[in-house]
Fold this protein.
Amino acid sequence: MRSIPNPTRAHLCTRLFAFATLVAPVLAAAAESQCYGTVSNGRVEGSVKLPLSGANFSAYSTLAATAGRTHVHSKVADILEASYKTLAIAHPNTRYVYGETGWPSGGRFRPHRTHQNGLSVDFFVPVKNGKGQSVPLPTNLTDKLGYDVEFDKEAKYGEYTIDFGALAEHLYQLDAAARARGAGLALVIFDILYLPRLFATERGAYLKEKLPFMKGKPWVRHDEHYHVDFVVPCKANTP
Ligand SMILES: [Zn+2]
């Protein structure tokens, strides 16, 4: 083996050092986050920013993500990633879109009433277009990044129809990934008008029995998105 000349060694060292400084923040972010308080009065330390996209999913808005609106507790990030991976294998052509989650340090997150401690995630409904293909629901500025989209009684919005099978499969995989990590789902909010259609899917019976759907009327209609709060132990929210 030829020995490496000194100048090259020095160069290698510099490059390794540069590499280490680049990697260090990533490693730091991989540590477990700490949440405080509740979803409606809390905060989070060491949160993780969700990836903008993956094989089968994307964020609702690059702009909003850049503004810092897609941070979660590290355990929630793990659960989301694992469930998207499972879905990508079983249903590679189904597209998913996630929405708002929370600020890097949590706290008040307008216009939401919760989303304060890294444990709340909004997901936009998976839809099929007029040709029956699974496509991301368009989420742009004219319809408040998707939140102003209104589905009718038939679960239609223009050419788009809610894909209840894909939605049920997502909730099922979120629950499975959460349980596998000693976590769980604390609350699922979705328009009660659509629950019978969700429960009529292949995963429906399981979801109806195991998942904590909000029974009452939420303060905003949840037709274009479903909200999930995860169960992760948090410390008391001391100022
Ligand atoms: Zn929400």
Q: What stands out?
A: Helices lie at 6-30, 62-66, 74-90, 164-180, 195-199, 204-210. The chain has two domains: 1-30, 33-231.
